[in-house]
Amino acid sequence: MRRRTLLKIAASVAVMAGIGISGQAIAAEKPTIALIPGLTTDAFYITMHKGAQKAADALGVKLIYQGAPDWNAALQVPVLDAIIARKPDAILIAPNDTNQLVAPLKNAADAGIAVITVDTFIDDGKYQDGAGKGDFPITYVASDNVLGGRMAARALAASIGGKGKVYVSNTKPNISTTDQREEGFKLEMAENYPGIEILKTQFNDDSAVKAAAQLQAVFARTSDLAGVFGANLFSAMGAADGVKAVGKSGKIRVVAFDAPTRIVDDLKSGLIDLAIAQHPAEIGYFGVMAAYAHVTGQSVPVAIGTGFTVMDKNNVDDPAISQYIYSD
Ligand code: T6T
């Protein structure tokens, strides 16, 4: 694709030189970049889109944003195919599944479209290393999700005084981000908190309603449940709803990944102790910047890490912190 874009730019320059065409003709040849979120109905991706649009505006490139309303690879692949048919210069995508998106994304790469994954990765997440069927994306722009899981474990351990029963409320397996958060959470607990027992993970299919029902079911059989780690926005909101429903607000402690406005309300009320906010706008911004750099002939780092902001009821009104609350 890089070649195709460079050819397009070269053609414009030739035309301009030959017939004295205006600079706007060159602007029309600026790259087109598509962003496919994990799902559209999620404040995390709404915020990522805003960051991507800021970068697109700064660079004067066209940004296409299209996705499916649910986290489901079977819904994401047709969206991807439709985008490939439009022949953008680059596709930024949060793949819904580490395996199921490999072949559909290879079709994009084979069509000369630069593939960059944002938030989630395919295969082993190690790109451009000549190993594995999913090494072809140019770069991966995301939070360090293993670290985020470790941060959540430390926070929950502190909340429950280093002992008691906890579980992870998670989405579904084979999603790189939430798999890695659970991995980091369990590693940290195993290494440093022998007094904490981790119960079986509850998978909620990215549904807060299911996550709430699961909290109630776990509590029904484990009356001494001490805490829960909600590994993403819907898992955390649902777990918090469940805690409220069983009348244990502030007693069963909740640590949340992600920071939509609703979680901030829960921090203030004491239903959630701490939220680990990702920086989705930064992911979108640097995703577009990386795509632009690549398609205009610059080399790009193979992985770009973005940060976290830890929120609790004491700091969440500070503008330096609240700027990371997601846009609903
Ligand atoms: O936690 C984010 C994202 O990082 C993850 O991959 C899927 O869930 C969210 O979008 C939040 O709902």
What does this structure look like?
- With 328 residues, this protein is of the alpha/beta class.
- The protein folds into 2 domains: 3-143 and 278-307, Response regulator (Rossmann fold, 3-Layer(aba) Sandwich); 145-277 and 314-321, Response regulator (Rossmann fold, 3-Layer(aba) Sandwich), CATH 3.40.50.
- The protein contains 12 helices and 13 strands.
- The chain has helices spanning 2-19, 23-28, 43-59, 73-85, 102-110, 145-159, 176-192, 208-221, 233-245, 261-269, 280-295, 319-322, and strands at residues 32-36, 62-65, 90-93, 114-118, 140-143, 164-170, 196-198, 202-203, 225-230, 253-257, 274-278, 303-306, 308-311.
- Helix 5 (102-110) links the parallel strand 3 and strand 4 (114-118).
- Helix 3 runs parallel beside helix 11.
- Residues 1-27 have low confidence and may be disordered.
- Bound molecules: alpha-D-tagatopyranose.
- Residues 38, 42, 44, 119-120, 177-178, 232-234, 257-258, 278 line the site of alpha-D-tagatopyranose.
